[in-house]
Amino acid sequence: MTHQPAEHVKGDLSLDEGGILQLRWPRGASISEADAESAMGRVNEMCGSTRRPMLVDMATTEKVSRGARAVFGRPCQASRIALLGSSPVDKVMANFALGVSRLPCPTRFFTSRTEAMAWLARDA
């Protein structure tokens, strides 16, 4: 598994053996526009010219700013994105992001990591 260093970074980004990017936000994270810019920059850097599917574990995310949602709505090297959550609040946040923003690639919300990874593996 390839890892990006987490110095001064909120989200932990890794690339698994199957070619799927995994972005995990820490418990209680409040994601700002700068956090989103940093994460998407690291995604693009890790991918280079290859587009890859990405799992975003947002199960313990507390807040996503309007600016961060705008950043997440821009194209990056993710070919499809699975948002993984565990609570009704996660689903509301994901549905808000999915419903309001025009997303640059197929994006779905899951409460099952197994189902999310299976959906992403179709593109890996």
Mean pLDDT across all residues, rounded? 84
Major beta sheet, specifics? 6 strands, mixed
User: For the terminal residues, how far apart are their CA atoms?
Assistant: 15 Å
Number of helices: 4
Give the topology string: H per helix, E per strand.
Answer: EEEEHEEHEHEH
| General shape | globular
Output the radius of gyration. Answer: 13 Å
As a percent range, the share of helical residues equals: 25-40%
Strand order of the largest sheet: 1-2-3-5-7-8
What does this structure look like?
The structure is a single chain. This protein is of the alpha/beta class and 124 residues long. It is built from four helices and eight strands; from the N terminus they run E-E-E-E-H-E-E-H-E-H-E-H. The chain has helices at 33-47, 66-72, 88-100, 113-121, and strands at 2-3, 12-15, 21-24, 30-31, 52-57, 63-64, 78-84, 107-110. Strands 1-2-3-5-7-8 form a six-stranded mixed β-sheet, with helices on both faces. A two-stranded parallel ribbon has the order 4-6. Helix 1 (33-47) packs parallel to helix 2. The radius of gyration is 13 Å and the shape is globular. The model is unreliable at 3-8 (pLDDT under 50).
